Amino acid sequence: MNEHSQGGGLIIFATFLFGIVLSQMPLPEFIGWARPEWMAMILIYWVIALPQSVGVGSAFVAGIVLDVIRGSVLGANALALVFVAYFAAMLHRRMRVFPIWQQSLLVMVLIGANQLILHWVQALVGYTGDSLLFLLPALVSAFFWPLMFLILRRVRRTFYVS
């Protein structure tokens, strides 16, 4: 193993930690529904960039940590992120060759599925809403995907993560 790639796991961990911080930053209530799913976007990036290093196991751990920090039903985010990681891993070769706007559309679908799973789990335990606003983060995340992709690619290349 060369000296540049030894810190790759630490860099990936740091990006997930940054995603947790972004997901917990307070926002005004009127835009709270539109918070992008930072953890899911970071997970999607690392799964398509390094499927041999980041996958379903990483998604499960990140989801459990997110459940504990958010105080949500234990396993809800884990289940949703495992679903996202599985399908991102299945599609990683295709996603790599897609132009960024097509990647954004696929990210919107994956995060929309993430939101549907979270909403379904919340409905099982009795916390439901009557509107479709819970899908808004999928649209906002698709909007932020090109920026997230470019930042994480720069981080991966700067620190020689492979």
Regions with little confidence, pLDDT below 50 for 5+ residues: none
Structural class of the secondary structure composition?
Answer: mainly alpha
Q: In percent, how much strand structure appears in the residues?
A: under 5%
Euclidean distance between termini CA atoms: 10 Å
Radius of gyration: 15 Å
Please write the string of helix (H) and strand (E) elements: HHHHHHH
Helix content: over 70%
Mean pLDDT comes to: 93
Shape category: globular
How would a crystallographer describe the biggest sheet?
A: none
Counting DSSP H or I runs of 4 or more residues, the number of helices is: 7
Write up what this structure looks like.
The protein is mainly α and 162 residues long. Helices cover 70% and strands 0% of the residues. The chain has helices at 8-24, 38-49, 56-70, 76-90, 92-97, 100-125, 136-158. The model has no long low-confidence stretch (mean pLDDT 93).
